[in-house]
Structure formats: structure tokens, C-alpha cells
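User: Here's a chain of 322 residues. Predict its fold as C-alpha cells.
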Amino acid sequence: MATESSNVKYEEEFITNSKGKKLFTCRWLPTDCEPKALVFLNHGYAMECSVSMKGAAMRLVKAGFGVYGIDNQGHGKSEGIQGFISRFDDLVDDSSHYFTSVCERKENKNKLRILLGESMGGAMVLQLHLKKPDFWDGGVLVAPMCKIADNMRPSQMMISVLTQLRKLIPTWKIVPGDDIIELAFRDPNIRQEIRENSLCYKGRVRLQTAMELFTVTTNIEKKLKDVTIPFLIVHGEDDKVTDPMTSKLLYENASSTDKAFKLYPGMWHALTYGEFPENTDTVFVDIISWINERIARGNSRLEREQNSKKNELHSTDKKDDN
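Assistant: Prediction complete.
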């Protein structure tokens, strides 16, 4: 499906992953200019791209970027039990395969590649970077799920019990916890929109899903120093879902030489879709400015790739001369 309005072309497509599951993808492209960079959206847990991240995509495409998104397995319009994550690594593989295929199209080869993820999508951005450290040019981490906030985290005793139970009843919705919608989305109107959006999962966290999210955050905590990608972290100071102090730890411990951390007083968890409009405006001014600054600095990854090819050709010519 393709639609076009206000100098924006929107398209949807289903792809099939390595395990035969159909996954929903979507893209927003400017029609009045060539995209100056590519931005890849990674949605949060229980969310999706085409509705709840549409506002973010429209802001980015109107700033001149090509924007691509994918609904993870069990999320949005993609196949799978709603809200169920069997292996987080499978989601990483799906996103990596799709995003990489977009980047390698002839028309996109010279464009900057920026990952943007909110909450669980922030964890996805970090995992995608760690999977292919030299492939991505930057990451925007919106309240990233590097660690689950203490009030959302099961006790150690509960974790032990859940670890045993997930072998028997992995899809059961039995993990206790607060209402994430009430904690994450500050604007009551958006809370209602989420509750009415059938593409968003609203039940209790499924057993295996909870354990996978716990595992991935635990692993990320151990690998903060391995992060080398240029990144911007934006986080609400009053976030009750993911811990702003863990974002600060990521900022302080990451090996990246190009990094920034912005903490917004009074703001909650869902910054791109959940805050009051004036606050969302502030966040996107910072995000778009940061991406534009990276573009202005030039594409160092592309320069490295071109120099590598030149060196390979030079080496081949020397061998031929001998």
C-alpha cells in the first residue's frame, strides 16, 4: 500500500523472515527532495510503528530524512502471538536483516545510517550496533531500556520462580506489574489512544517475554563499555519505566567519543508519543539538530569504506605487477 500527501510518500510492505514469519514494514519518504539520511525506527515493548510512531516519522521525514520501521514479531501487524517474545535475538536478527537490506540499495549506499529506538527499541539499537559495530553511523536512544526500573523489576525470588515456569507455560500472562500505560504516557489523550489501538498489546507481560527483557537488559548492563557508536540519549527525569540513571551510566561508560545525554525535567517515559505537544517539540528539536550535526560532519564510515577499497585495489595491482 502506498499513499502520498504533504510532500511525504508512505508505503507498507510485508517481508518474510528466516523462519517463515511475515513481518510488517513501513517507510516514509520525502517527495520534494532526496533523503539526506536514513533513520530506522525501533518501537517499544507492546507498541508498533505505523500508528504509535507515525508522529515521530512525520517529524523526521519533514526534516528531510528517509524513515523506515518494522513491527517486531508478536507486535503490531507482524505475525506471532501478540506481546510474546520467544528470543530477543530473533528480533535483532529480523531488524538487522531488513535495515541492512535498505541500506545496501543502490540509491542508499552513500547515505548516513541512523538508528532510533524508544524504550525496548533503545535496547534494540544497542544490540544492532553491537552485532555490526562498524555498520551504523549513529544512534538516538529515547529512554532506552538498558535497565528496568526497580519498581517494574521482579524480585529475585520471583525471577527464580519465573525461570522455572517459563519452560512449561512461556506464553502465559502471569507476570505481576504496574499498568505501563499509566506510568509511561503523560498525556491522558494519548493514553486513551493507546488503549483503543488494537495493534498495541495491553495484557500482563507474558512469562517468556519478561525473562527475555530481563536477560537483554542484564546483558546490556555488562557491555556498556563496548558501545562505540556516536549517540544521543534523551530521557525524561520523571521516567518510572526505565531508569534515567542507567542512561547516565551508559553515557559515562560507553567508549563512544561522540556522545550526548539530555535529561528533561518533569517529563515521563514516552517522549516521542506520550508527552504534551510542547514537550515533544522540544525533544525533536534536539533529535533533529543532533542528526543534522552528524550529517554536517561528513560520512566517516563511507570514507573508511572507500579508502579500504582503494587499498585493496592497490594491493591487487601490486600483486599483478609482480
